[in-house]
């Protein structure tokens, strides 16, 4: 489950990689720790 800290990391990944939050969530669910 993604928490507040993970949400900040997801925002950074989203901005740095130009991917969507939903895609990051899919990758997190399938791969685990990003």
Automatic annotation (TrEMBL):
Note the InterPro entries from the entry: DNA_ligase_N_sf
Task: Write down the SUPFAM superfamilies for this protein, in alphabetical order.
Answer: ATP-dependent DNA ligase DNA-binding domain
One Gene Ontology term from the biological process aspect of the record: DNA repair
Q: Keyword rRNA processing, does the record have it? A: no
**Iron in keyword set:** no
Per the record, the domain of life is: Eukaryota
- Molecular function GO terms recorded: DNA binding; DNA ligase (ATP) activity
Key words, A-Z: Ligase
Which named protein is this? Uncharacterized protein
Q: Which organism is it from?
A: Nymphaea colorata
Q: Tell me the organism's taxonomic lineage.
A: Eukaryota, Viridiplantae, Streptophyta, Embryophyta, Tracheophyta
